[in-house]
Structure formats: structure tokens, C-alpha cells
Amino acid sequence: MNFIVSSCRIVPGCVWLNREVYFESTREPFDMNSFFSSVYEHIGIDYRRFYKMDALSKLGFLASEILLAGSDREQPKPDTGIILFNKNSSLEADMNYQKTIQHKDDFFPSPTEFVYTLPNIVAGEIAIRNKIYGETAFYVLRRFYSDTINDVIDDALHVGGIKCALGGWINVDIPKNAVDGFMMLCASMPLKFANNGFTPCLPAGLKGVRTGNIDFLTYSDIIDLYRNFKI
Questions:
Q1: What are phi and psi of 11, to 5 degrees?
Q2: 8 A C-beta contact, residue 214 and residue 3
Q3: pLDDT in tens for each of the 231 residues of the chain?
Q4: Residue 178: how many CA atoms within 13 Å on its side-chain side?
Q5: Pick from 34, 90, 138, 162: CA 20 to 30 A from residue 58's CA?
Q6: Which neighbouring-strand residues pair with 68?
Q7: Total tally of structural domains belonging to the chain
Q8: What is the rounded distance in angstroms from the CA atom of residue 86 to the CA atom of residue 56?
């Protein structure tokens, strides 16, 4: 049985970690870039590459930073993978890049914008930061399908040669000024009980402690975690 070690939910103005509020902003109206910067500062890291990322990569990066807090960033992780999903692909970066090439008289293709015109770049950003060398994949779906997300991650943990995976839904809607992030640290490793909490036997370099009830990697637990925080 695969299980969910921890989960992070990010929506406009609020971040949850394992069903508890991790960060909340009362700023009105909601501004996506300011919100991302505030969460970044709250985490307390120094990673200048963050400011060059597009909104999709920032959303995924912040969720991964929260879930992997305390992990050894320098420890190679060949048995850990990244499997993400969304609806809008890399539309924000696509639109920004289109602006640089649509007029003959103002034609200036931007390498900075072009690099983010694939949604799986967010998986690459997370992998580089954490030296994750296992499977990485990004799927574009019509909407949040908990059964599909569960099946793909579950298969990767069973037959994909990995023991842990960062997986979930990372979606940005620029016209609606909306973010919809839900990321999980999933594992196929056994559990130990110590210090009033369940400690998974994670691969070298990873850290994760979960108190209270364990969420198993099933479509029902995934939809429960996702909808529990949906605004």
C-alpha cells in the first residue's frame, strides 16, 4: 500500500500543510506575484533562481519547498520522482513568448520566456533544486481527476523504479488571477511510529514526519485532501 507522507495546498491567499494553515495573506485584492513572494519570504530560503521563474514554476517550487523542508538538498535522490498534472499547461509563458514574436516590426524572441513554454519545466526546477534523479512527468488534463492522478502516481511507485514521488495538481490561470496548487509527498516505504508520529523510512536525503492519521494513496483520500481546502 502506497501512502501520502505529507500534502501542501496553495490557493489565493492561503497555504495549508497537512490540513493546517501554514501561511495566510489578508492582502486585498489578491495579487499572484506578491503572494508568491510573501510565501517565499515566509519559508525563509535564499534561492535567487526563484525570481526568474514563471508563475507555474513558482507555484510548484513553493509547494515542494514546504514539503521537503529539512531534507538534504545535496544528497542525490535517484529513487525519487516528480509527477505533476494541470489543466492550463504553460499558457502564461506561451502568451508572454507570443508577444515577443507576433509583430515583424517588433520581433525579439525572448529566451527567458521561451524556456518556460513547456509545463514540465516546473518539474525540472524542482529536480535541480533537490537533486531528484528519478522519473519526472507532467500531464495536462481537462480538469482535476483524482482517479487519474492516483493511478499514475501509484503505478510509478509500483513499477516505475522509484520509492517516493512528489505528485499533484499545479495550475495557474492568469486571466482569472487564480492559483490552484495541491502537491503530495508520496511513498511506498514502510512506516515507523516514534515521538507520537508516523515516520516513513524514506530514502537518503529526504525527511518527512506525519502526526495523526495517515492518508493512503487512494483516489478518495486525494479528493478529500484537495477539496478540504478548496476555496
A1: -130, 170
A2: yes
A3: 688 888 999 999 999 998 889 999 988 889 999 999 999 999 999 999 999 899 999 999 999 999 999 888 899 999 999 999 999 887 676 666 566 667 677 666 666 665 666 778 899 999 999 999 999 999 999 999 999 999 999 999 988 789 889 999 999 998 888 999 999 999 886 555 444 444 555 666 665 545 445 566 777 788 888 886 544
A4: 9
A5: 162
A6: none
A7: 1
A8: 10
- Domain encompassing residue 90: 3-228
Residue 26: CATH number of its domain? 3.40.47
pTM of the model: 0.85
Rounded (5°) CA angle 112-114-120:
110
For 156-181, give the DSSP string.
HHHHSS-SEEEEEEEEEETTTTEEEE
Q: How far apart are CA 213 and CA 186, in angstroms?
A: 15
**Residue 51 to residues 19, 46, 89, 98, 112, Cα–Cα distance (Å):** 28, 11, 20, 21, 12
